[in-house]
Amino acid sequence: MILREEREQVVEYGRKLMEANLTTGTGGNVSVFNREEGYIALSPSGMDYFDVKPEDVVIMTLDGGFVEEDHLVPTTEWGLHLGLYKVRPDASAIVHCHSDYATAVSCLGIDLPAVNYMVAVAGDRVPITPFAVYGTPELAKNVADNIGDYNAVLMANHGQIALGRSMKAAFTVALNVEYVARLYILAKSAGEPVILPKEAIEGTQRQFASYGQTKKR
Ligand SMILES: [Zn+2]
């Protein structure tokens, strides 16, 4: 089976989307791009995340071709994933989800501002991208045109999409976009939140670079 490891990640992180309350039902989708081999592993369309097995994961090429004859229908947002991989050569995994608070902010038609330093996983804010019907080339274009150097964007009246060098990284971005969006809605309901300046985000990103356990061996 080609891309076994990537298929297993698609299965594992699809389940994590549900477990982390980042999506409802079969909403959302994930992918992993093995750039060395040129193959992308994508969630199948409309399947319960807990039923998906590695052999159900759909393998595509960057130009939209299928690799296996006997494949399932891929996520309706496959064009969105491929479009992002084309404009972001640093990305090897994508998480798209309809998490409640990020989607709520997307319905306000505004960027998610830096109400908390964890927004730095995505950038100095999370930009909003214009609405287009799901699964259309217009939606894929809107997102690809607006991602810039950010690691996530809000998709107006729809949800969020996050990317990273690994599935773990992309998932961490999605999780924190939802966290900051939740803080924004909560703070906004009690008053006018203070927005952090760019320098605070840049300082946070420098701290991220040295975060974690230092190897002693
Ligand atoms: Zn969606």
TrEMBL record:
Gene3D superfamilies with a match to the protein in the record: Class II aldolase/adducin N-terminal domain
Taxonomy, superkingdom: Bacteria
One Pfam family it belongs to: Aldolase_II
Any one of the GO CC terms: cytosol
Keywords: Lyase, Metal-binding
Protein name, as recorded: L-fuculose 1-phosphate aldolase
All copies of domain Class II aldolase/adducin N-terminal, residue ranges: 8-185
Biological processes, Gene Ontology terms: pentose catabolic process
GO molecular function: aldehyde-lyase activity; metal ion binding
